[in-house]
Amino acid sequence: MFLFRSFLIKTFLLFSRMTGTDKAIFYISVDPSNVELAAVLYISVFKAERITQYDDGSVELKIFDSSVLVTSGSPRFRSIVELRVDPHTISLVIDSQAFVATDLKLNLSSQYLLKVIDPFQVIWLLSIKEFSDGLRYLPSCTKCKYPSHHRPALCSEMTRWQLMIGQSLETRELLGIEPYFRDIETLEADLFRIRECRTFYEILNVRSFVGVLSTTLDELERFNTLLQGLHVVRALNPTYEAAGNFKNLLRSAVNSYNSLLEAIIPTGMARETRELPNPVATRARAADNWRQLVKRCHSARFLMNNKLSKANTREELWMSDLLYDEVSDWRKQNI
């Protein structure tokens, strides 16, 4: 019964494979003594997650959006795994001595950036996720499941905002939210430019891209969404920015964001020379200005509530904890 159940699991995974998709299921058969060694290698390089350890020694892993079953056997054919990964993973594979590049002819399309063979004779076909795959670095809100995190706006404020922006232009102007609406539209356009820029640099030079440039684009995305959330807060709470030197901090943070964005977006000259920018100093100044703004956001709502003689809600306390962590994180980026 045990052997039959194990056979059914493996057969299901083998025939459930959806070739060429992110959410694929792959079957890797290796020598019995190498099952755990292979799993450890994939966890190390691909940051795989160990999902299930079966009684027969097989290991089910989750690698990005794909499931991979590593099991024992003597396959007649080499296992082939197709993954769409981030540039950091590409760099890890290139630098790893365990993977060897191959020019094996597999009648493949040019989408595969890297073809390598591991010590267990498994062929890995790797391509890069494009900006159109969405935000890889910004998880959805854990409470309201909004597509990207909206700090410092509360989940309830995001719900109110969605209702308000559905109103006519005249109504938005009457409510006084139209300027914030236009600012958010501009930031959304910037976000597309940032993702498009990421794709351009990844294709241009993957190995050089990994590092300061890749991290800077991640941070631009994060601060972009933070500014969007901040505009929502300001639109719904007129007295929010009355705290201390909030307006000056906001101005400095926005100027830093625009300067860094300008330094990152490839110009016509950069496209011709194929040189990657190195915005170390600009990034450090921006991170410092962003940290100071987030720190002010951490206290601004409490100061606003105090002036309104209003108690802080559990949702506001939750957001305060998130912003506190955000301040610490931006302090680390100021290098």
UniProtKB/TrEMBL annotation:
Keywords (A to Z) from UniProt: Signal
The organism's place on the tree of life at top rank: Eukaryota
Record protein name field: (rape) hypothetical protein
Species of origin: Brassica napus
Stretch forming the signal peptide: 1-23
